[in-house]
């Protein structure tokens, strides 16, 4: 019996030794995980300073802690009683102005305003293949807006697509681009939004089909379509190019409209800026391809288009692009517009198969003489054009007012008329044009309530045949579908 006990002792010791090693290994693993978490928190937490926020970005985005009236580390320069000194107030004012400029660059008002009497209060329905997403209220109202959000909450939403309560945001909110925006710029936008009038308004709920109403599924969408991280300047490129890339890829989120989408509704990275269809409107190819894109546009023409909505002999902004010019790009500095143009001219050109540029089609018409004394018994595009369009665009199609800011544009050498599809032209006839800039208030009435689908199709096809791309036509059924688009 004693002999057996003595034999069991080494085995018992061995078991205890193994248990000790297991406990040590477990503690080491737990400590390693904790250390990794602390490292992650230091890099990504609310007070993090990212190494990829290089001087080129800081030169254009003053941090609140660097603004006049702020002490190092973000402490406020105030009086002993806690009130702000004039220097601190001036710094805060500068930050808010900077935030307003950046909010305009991001065109926040466009998506977050359904009723112009309630700016930034949300409620705008955005139709997707998976259902309707309604934009939220981003005024500082504490109950229905973001009044109770912390700066960390706001940064997380912009950079990671995660809301205050940890909910996954849908990519109709372009966090895939906003993730590139520096902390300084995001917090400047936040400072500006805090100054808005709080509007107590709770927008309607989203209307998404199952399973797309399950927000946790966005984890999988992000795996394929989202890379979190701030913009990193390319040291091989100029400061102008880097500024343009930062704006185009980040706040301005140009790809959201001008890049086609994959089956998950993420952006096709292989076809960046090559054009896409958005709610019936064609957002054209803006790569430097000379036929399909804007490769034959000069820098000044592109800057003019972004700042005024018009580039005579090229294009006139309508639909969603007219809203972008009205609410956003017209407010950008000449320096920033030039940077955007420099960057767009550098991206890889992508051909869409067009034989000639959109703005190089058309000849003046003389159909008005042929129509005199002619009895019209059917829907006739030429007659409808003379009756409805010639007063402003001239029966020759050459427009009225030449290149003046408020001119009625020529239909000859016009991108919408010379495009390979007639969607935008038909949409303009149906829904009109409204574009207000510092140069002019441009208004074309909508004819959707005055003309039938077959009449709109007839005018569209007459205009493309006479003044634009004769291969571009639209059917009555297509017009009926376009009529229903927002």
From TrEMBL:
* Keywords per UniProt: Cell membrane, Electron transport, Heme, Iron, Membrane, Metal-binding, Repeat, Signal, Transmembrane, Transmembrane helix, Transport
Which Pfam families does the entry link to?
Cytochrom_C
**An example Gene Ontology CC term for this record:** plasma membrane
Where is composition skewed (Low complexity) in this entry?
77-91
Keyword check for Calcium, yes or no.
no
Q: Sorted alphabetically, which InterPro entries does this protein's record hold?
A: Cyt_c-like_dom, Cyt_c-like_dom_sf, Cyt_C_IC, Cytochrome_c-type_DH, Membr-bd_ADH_cyt_c
Q: Which GO terms describe its molecular function?
A: electron transfer activity; heme binding; iron ion binding; oxidoreductase activity, acting on CH-OH group of donors
Write down what this protein is called: Mono/diheme cytochrome c family protein
The organism of origin for this protein: Paraburkholderia bryophila
